[in-house]
Amino acid sequence: xxxxxxxxxxxxxxxxxxxxDNGAAVAKMSIATNESYxxxxxxxxxxxxxHDIVMWRALAERAERSLKKGSMIYVEGKLTHRKYQDKDGxxxxxxxxxxxxxxxxxxxEGGRPDTAFPSAADAPTSYQKxxxxxxxxxxxxxxxxxxxxxxxxTPMDDDDDLPF
Length: 164
Fold this sequence. Notes:
CATH 2.40.50.140, 2 helices, globular
Protein backbone atom coordinates (compact mmCIF):
# COMPACT_ATOMS: atom_id res chain seq x y z
CA UNK A 1 0.00 0.00 0.00
CA UNK A 2 1.14 3.52 -0.72
CA UNK A 3 0.44 6.77 1.12
CA UNK A 4 2.41 9.48 -0.69
CA UNK A 5 1.68 13.15 -1.21
CA UNK A 6 3.63 15.51 -3.47
CA UNK A 7 2.83 19.22 -3.36
CA UNK A 8 4.31 22.30 -4.98
CA UNK A 9 2.98 25.53 -3.57
CA UNK A 10 3.58 28.72 -1.63
CA UNK A 11 3.82 29.06 2.14
CA UNK A 12 0.94 31.00 3.65
CA UNK A 13 2.96 32.00 6.71
CA UNK A 14 6.37 31.48 8.28
CA UNK A 15 6.80 28.01 9.79
CA UNK A 16 5.74 27.78 13.44
CA UNK A 17 8.42 25.74 15.22
CA UNK A 18 8.13 24.31 18.74
CA UNK A 19 10.58 22.21 20.71
CA UNK A 20 9.06 19.37 22.71
CA ASP A 21 10.22 18.32 26.20
CA ASN A 22 12.28 15.50 24.67
CA GLY A 23 14.12 18.05 22.48
CA ALA A 24 12.42 17.14 19.19
CA ALA A 25 11.50 20.06 16.96
CA VAL A 26 8.16 20.18 15.18
CA ALA A 27 7.27 22.72 12.49
CA LYS A 28 3.77 23.49 11.27
CA MET A 29 2.94 25.49 8.18
CA SER A 30 0.36 25.75 5.45
CA ILE A 31 0.93 25.61 1.70
CA ALA A 32 -1.37 27.04 -0.95
CA THR A 33 -1.71 25.23 -4.27
CA ASN A 34 -3.57 26.74 -7.22
CA GLU A 35 -5.54 25.10 -10.00
CA SER A 36 -6.71 27.15 -12.97
CA TYR A 37 -9.53 26.22 -15.30
CA UNK A 38 -12.03 27.79 -17.70
CA UNK A 39 -15.62 28.03 -16.50
CA UNK A 40 -18.71 27.56 -18.69
CA UNK A 41 -18.50 31.14 -19.93
CA UNK A 42 -14.84 30.73 -20.97
CA UNK A 43 -13.42 32.86 -18.15
CA UNK A 44 -10.34 31.67 -16.29
CA UNK A 45 -10.98 30.72 -12.67
CA UNK A 46 -8.39 29.88 -10.02
CA UNK A 47 -9.13 27.48 -7.20
CA UNK A 48 -6.77 27.70 -4.21
CA UNK A 49 -6.41 24.76 -1.81
CA UNK A 50 -4.68 25.06 1.57
CA HIS A 51 -2.72 22.11 2.96
CA ASP A 52 -1.48 21.78 6.55
CA ILE A 53 2.12 20.52 6.68
CA VAL A 54 4.01 19.06 9.67
CA MET A 55 7.79 18.54 9.75
CA TRP A 56 9.76 16.84 12.50
CA ARG A 57 13.27 17.05 13.97
CA ALA A 58 16.09 18.10 11.59
CA LEU A 59 13.62 18.79 8.78
CA ALA A 60 11.71 21.18 11.08
CA GLU A 61 14.92 22.96 12.06
CA ARG A 62 15.91 23.32 8.39
CA ALA A 63 12.46 24.71 7.60
CA GLU A 64 12.80 27.25 10.41
CA ARG A 65 16.13 28.47 9.01
CA SER A 66 15.25 28.60 5.33
CA LEU A 67 11.50 29.03 4.77
CA LYS A 68 9.55 32.27 4.85
CA LYS A 69 5.99 33.30 4.03
CA GLY A 70 5.48 33.24 0.26
CA SER A 71 8.34 30.80 -0.43
CA MET A 72 7.61 28.30 -3.18
CA ILE A 73 8.47 24.78 -2.06
CA TYR A 74 8.25 21.16 -3.16
CA VAL A 75 7.06 18.83 -0.36
CA GLU A 76 6.86 15.04 -0.19
CA GLY A 77 5.25 13.17 2.66
CA LYS A 78 2.28 11.13 3.78
CA LEU A 79 -1.33 12.03 4.42
CA THR A 80 -2.48 11.69 8.04
CA HIS A 81 -5.75 12.26 9.86
CA ARG A 82 -6.04 12.82 13.57
CA LYS A 83 -8.68 13.61 16.13
CA TYR A 84 -8.30 15.93 19.11
CA GLN A 85 -10.52 17.78 21.55
CA ASP A 86 -10.65 21.54 21.64
CA LYS A 87 -10.73 23.54 24.88
CA ASP A 88 -14.51 23.11 25.09
CA GLY A 89 -14.24 19.32 24.84
CA UNK A 90 -15.54 19.12 21.26
CA UNK A 91 -14.04 16.53 18.95
CA UNK A 92 -12.08 18.07 16.10
CA UNK A 93 -10.57 16.35 13.09
CA UNK A 94 -7.59 17.49 11.09
CA UNK A 95 -5.90 16.25 7.92
CA UNK A 96 -2.19 16.97 7.57
CA UNK A 97 0.74 16.07 5.37
CA UNK A 98 3.64 14.79 7.46
CA UNK A 99 6.61 15.76 5.32
CA UNK A 100 9.67 13.58 4.92
CA UNK A 101 11.45 15.96 2.55
CA UNK A 102 11.14 19.44 1.06
CA UNK A 103 13.02 21.52 -1.46
CA UNK A 104 12.94 25.28 -1.92
CA UNK A 105 11.99 26.32 -5.44
CA UNK A 106 12.61 30.07 -5.09
CA UNK A 107 15.67 31.61 -6.64
CA UNK A 108 18.63 31.87 -4.33
CA GLU A 109 20.59 35.09 -3.99
CA GLY A 110 23.07 33.69 -6.55
CA GLY A 111 20.26 33.66 -9.12
CA ARG A 112 19.94 29.89 -9.55
CA PRO A 113 16.73 28.20 -8.38
CA ASP A 114 17.04 25.30 -5.94
CA THR A 115 14.66 22.98 -7.73
CA ALA A 116 13.54 19.49 -6.96
CA PHE A 117 14.45 18.49 -10.48
CA PRO A 118 18.12 18.13 -11.47
CA SER A 119 19.62 20.29 -14.17
CA ALA A 120 22.86 20.27 -16.11
CA ALA A 121 24.41 22.38 -13.37
CA ASP A 122 23.85 19.47 -10.95
CA ALA A 123 25.59 16.93 -13.23
CA PRO A 124 28.78 15.26 -12.06
CA THR A 125 31.98 17.15 -12.80
CA SER A 126 33.24 14.52 -15.26
CA TYR A 127 30.07 14.93 -17.35
CA GLN A 128 30.41 18.70 -17.33
CA LYS A 129 34.01 18.51 -18.53
CA UNK A 130 32.99 16.19 -21.35
CA UNK A 131 30.21 18.46 -22.60
CA UNK A 132 32.18 21.65 -21.99
CA UNK A 133 34.87 20.45 -24.39
CA UNK A 134 32.38 19.82 -27.20
CA UNK A 135 32.21 22.50 -29.92
CA UNK A 136 29.52 25.08 -29.34
CA UNK A 137 26.82 25.72 -31.90
CA UNK A 138 27.01 29.11 -33.63
CA UNK A 139 24.85 31.77 -32.04
CA UNK A 140 24.37 33.77 -35.24
CA UNK A 141 21.84 33.08 -37.96
CA UNK A 142 24.56 31.55 -40.16
CA UNK A 143 23.92 28.03 -41.44
CA UNK A 144 25.78 25.21 -39.71
CA UNK A 145 28.31 23.47 -41.94
CA UNK A 146 30.46 20.42 -41.29
CA UNK A 147 29.88 17.54 -38.91
CA UNK A 148 30.00 17.98 -35.17
CA UNK A 149 30.28 14.88 -33.00
CA UNK A 150 30.34 14.64 -29.25
CA UNK A 151 30.00 11.95 -26.60
CA UNK A 152 26.21 12.00 -27.05
CA UNK A 153 26.06 11.81 -30.85
CA THR A 154 27.45 9.26 -33.30
CA PRO A 155 28.23 9.70 -36.98
CA MET A 156 25.64 8.20 -39.33
CA ASP A 157 27.96 7.50 -42.29
CA ASP A 158 28.35 3.72 -41.70
CA ASP A 159 25.18 2.03 -43.01
CA ASP A 160 26.60 -1.48 -42.42
CA ASP A 161 25.75 -1.28 -38.70
CA LEU A 162 22.01 -0.90 -39.28
CA PRO A 163 20.00 -3.83 -37.85
CA PHE A 164 17.62 -4.03 -40.84
